[in-house]
Give the backbone structure.
Amino acid sequence: MCRNIKTLFNFAPPATELEIRDASLQFVRKLSGINVPSKANEAAFERAVAEVAASARVLVQSLVTKAEPRTREAEAAKAKARTALRFGNREGVSSD
């Protein structure tokens, strides 16, 4: 589940509100062990997501670095290369 939480700091363009909310949702899901809350827990769950998102937003906007901003395309290419190393090239492999 936490594999879906992506780094949000030092990207050009900066992280969007949707990216921050999605990461916050995954974090709250992991902490609570609940993927979809019941009606009884829905308000508490959504409040937690909003509070985590607000904290994440403040954190990401407050951090400073001298490093060049990363691009999403370059990070995606790195992830694809790591996957290929880990699992091998599966293109053209039949599942028959």
Summary: Helices lie at 17-32, 39-62, 72-87. Residues 79 and 85 are 10 Å apart (CA to CA).
